[in-house]
Amino acid sequence: MPYFSRLTDIITCRISDLLASAADPRLALSEILSEMREGLEACDRNLHTYSVSRDRLEQEIAGHETQAVRWRDEAREHLGADNEEAARLALQRKNELEDLVAGLRPELEAATGNWNNMQRIRRALEARFAEAQRETERFSTGVDEQISAAFRRPGPAASIESELEQLRRELGR
After folding, report:
1. Residue 173: helix, strand or coil by DSSP?
2. Model-level pTM greater than 0.70?
3. In this structure, are residues 114 and 52 in contact, taking their beta carbons and an 8 Å threshold?
4. At what angle do helices 25-80 and 84-141 cross, to 10 degrees?
5. Three-state SS for 114?
6. Residues 6 or more apart from 99 whose CB is under 8 A from it?
7. CA distance 155 to 120
8. pLDDT, tens digit (0-9, with 9 covering 90-100), for 137-150
9. DSSP run (H or E) holding 172
């Protein structure tokens, strides 16, 4: 039975609650860690996709901006040679490229935003994964047993025997 259907489920889960409701907490923790690893891998794939998209858009925008500068320079040259019609055509091409760049910029911002958001999600997943790993260590080292033994109050018989021993010492026996 999967514990998580989305990456945000991993981030918002309470591992202690999941383990408390599991019939076999050790098995549940193993499954939870496996699903978290899958989530981290999916996150890495998304990061790669967003990064490639962002890089492609940056290169495309830079290329179009370079072309627009060339068309402006060409328009200047045509105007200097008294060829207004060719200058108009060059400026028209420059404006088309600037419009294209204006359309691509929001796409770049979205790709960058998606990448940044996925980075935040990845860090949160890593934190949750580390928490689950600490739970694994707690199970493997028997910390639960150590903690409960340290805080276990002596039973009534042990307490009475302890008091009785103290009274004997006071009486010198």
Report:
1. coil
2. no
3. no
4. 170
5. helix
6. none
7. 50
8. 887 776 555 444 44
9. none
